[in-house]
Design goal:
5-stranded parallel β-sheet, 4-stranded antiparallel β-sheet, alpha/beta, globular
């Protein structure tokens, strides 16, 4: 498996910090100090596994770099930015990003997000999803329920996609935690129940598709 990561960040101290933690986890790193250099590295490095792009970079911002990458590749992209408003997050997903982290951030959390993103995208399925009144625009990280946009956290979105891609299959809480959180996650598995409850509430009438299987887990039930 490729493990080379492109880090594009104009602040050298942040770039080196991120590189340091990822190197400790066994990743190879290529670094760019501006958007144009990032795009050149993307075009000339053929074994990249993932790109981490800062938004506010000279010469070309992270959103534009992401758009250009996405026009030619399904390379996983994580946006790193000091902007933390909902509109900025939506802009990141609309340009094709797979994940979004706001500064300041914990390096340990960043590493976990990188690992989860790689594990998730290695499945190779970035297609949109649709079932009855629910529509998921995967690349835009957008969910529509009965035609209305539903605001979700990254974990809620990933959970919904996982359930929908395995429709009518019962998934245990352990399976869900290993896929959506981290295989080394040591928290209470009741966090799955909490996220399912929030997911159902946000989906409104369409929340009925998420069915509880007593003492086992959950499934997304597709009606005939």
């Amino acid at each position: 498996m490729n493990n080379k990561i492109l880090i594009a960040e104009d602040e050298a101290n942040i770039r080196r910090l991120v590189a340091h933690y990822l190197l400790q986890e066994g990743f190879e790193i290529v670094e760019a100090a501006n958007g144009r250099q990032a795009l050149e590295l993307f075009e000339n490095t053929h074994d990249l596994a993932l790109a981490i792009l800062d938004v506010m970079m000279p010469e070309m911002d992270g959103y534009e770099v992401c758009r250009r990458i996405r026009a030619n590749s399904d390379l996983p992209v994580l946006i790193l930015t000091a902007r933390d408003t909902e509109s900025d997050e939506v802009a990141g997903f609309r340009c094709g990003a797979d994940e979004y982290i706001s500064k300041p951030f914990s390096p340990a959390i960043l590493v976990m997000r990188v690992k989860n993103l790689l594990r998730r995208t290695q499945q190779g399925d970035h297609s949109d999803l649709e079932a009855d009144g629910i529509r998921v625009l995967y690349r835009e990280r957008t969910v529509l329920a009965d035609g209305k946009r539903v605001i979700m956290t990254p974990k809620e979105f990933d959970l919904l996609c996982y359930l929908m891609r395995n429709k009518n299959i019962v998934l245990s809480r352990e399976q869900i935690i290993n896929r959506i959180w981290d295989m080394d996650y040591s928290g209470d598995d009741r966090t799955v129940d909490t996220h399912i409850k929030c997911l159902r509430a946000k989906l409104g009438a369409q929340g009925k598709h998420i069915v509880t299987i007593r003492k086992v887990g959950y499934k997304f039930e597709q009606y005939l």
